[in-house]
Specification:
139 residues, 6 helices, single chain
């Protein structure tokens, strides 16, 4: 699990990202589709709405860091839902890379090695938990 310093760093840098949430989310999706254009058809809703959902999900995950059972339940349900959208295991790595690229772009000099490590660990927790939820869905 993340230590208190990492949680503080995540919340502090997410506040910076949130101030530019519209730009951040669009940078994320632009990078994601550049990395894997085959992912674009998985997004049936308006990309603006999808961008808002991304920011909401990150905010929710950060708010639940002190409630690991709720975080686990939320992420497992999200992972199970993503199976119905056509998300596959290999997509999680691409999403993680796109997230890192977005954070680097939006945070600039504030995306330090320690910040990168904290976000990487958070994303690994999110992805692992979502994949566990996805694994419970009959394919």
């Amino acid at each position: 699990m993340l230590d208190p310093e990492q949680k503080h760093r995540l919340r502090k840098t997410f506040a910076l990202v949130e101030r530019q949430s519209h730009v951040a989310a669009l940078v994320f999706y632009q990078r994601l589709f550049e990395m894997d254009p085959m992912l674009r058809p998985l997004f049936k809703t308006d990309i603006e709405l999808q961008a808002a959902k991304l920011m909401d999900m990150l905010a929710s995950a950060l708010s639940l860091l002190e409630k690991p059972d709720e975080l686990t339940e939320t992420l497992e349900e999200l992972g199970a839902r993503h199976v119905t959208y056509g998300v596959r295991t290999e997509h999680y790595d691409t999403v993680g890379e796109a997230l890192g690229a977005m954070l680097s772009t939006v945070l600039g000099k504030d995306y330090t090695a320690e910040t990168r490590k904290a976000w990487t660990e958070l994303y690994q927790l999110i992805a692992t938990t979502m994949l566990r939820g996805a694994g419970r869905v009959a394919r």
